[in-house]
Amino acid sequence: MSQHAVELAQGARQLGVALSEQQQQSLLGYMALLNKWNKAYNLTAVRDPNEMVSRHLLDSLSIVPFIEGQRWLDVGSGGGMPGVMLAIMFPEREFTLLDSNGKKTRFLTQVKNELGLGNLQVVNSRVEAFEPGQPFDGITSRAFASLADFTQLTRHLGTEQTRWLAMKGVYPDEELAALPVDFKLESSAQLQVPGCVGSRHLLILRRMDQG
């Protein structure tokens, strides 16, 4: 078992996330692709593969317990965090990964094909121009934008039933104060990510019925 496989298995256990052999192989396969394509495509500032397990894989897996509903959008997906990890963990659910950067969506399409992720759709579009056939049950973002921008830019993609999951570092009091009036904080969680120094928070937002 490689050092990265051991670190991933131990970290997932600490997070309370059960990994099958296939899921573990897919997660490590994703990391290998990220490392390979990063040199040309600048997908992540993390250059050291030894940091990728904690800062990308485990960080993304830390929100697994909060995923409910069938249809999810990962907005500003970039290199595919957390969307690719969630698609690997929930093969029975659908994940749309959206990014306006063509290089990044080309990489995500390669990941989808090489890992055989039939439940993953890649969309190259600006979020405000994206018009899916139906609203999403959940929308995630990791380092995409401020909470105000995240909710304003995606409000047309959800309903009062949708949950917006924003992954943040330190608890963003000022961003919460600037939320649009029809959005509220439903809950928040401090995430303990094995191997990650620094604060990690998940904020779950909802849109209120203005009627």
UniProtKB/TrEMBL annotation:
One of its GO terms (molecular function) is rRNA (guanine-N7-)-methyltransferase activity. Gene3D superfamilies: Vaccinia Virus protein VP39. Its EC number is 2.1.1.170. Its main location: cytoplasm. The keyword Flavoprotein does not apply. It holds the Pfam family GidB. The keyword Cytoplasm applies. S-adenosyl-L-methionine binds at G76, M81, V127, E128, R142. It is found in: Cytoplasm. One of its GO terms (cellular component) is cytosol. Keywords: Cytoplasm, Methyltransferase, rRNA processing, S-adenosyl-L-methionine, Transferase. It is an enzyme of class 2 (transferase). It catalyses: guanosine(527) in 16S rRNA + S-adenosyl-L-methionine = N(7)-methylguanosine(527) in 16S rRNA + S-adenosyl-L-homocysteine. Belongs to the methyltransferase superfamily. RNA methyltransferase RsmG family. Specifically methylates the N7 position of guanine in position 527 of 16S rRNA. This is Ribosomal RNA small subunit methyltransferase G. It comes from Halopseudomonas aestusnigri. The gene is rsmG.
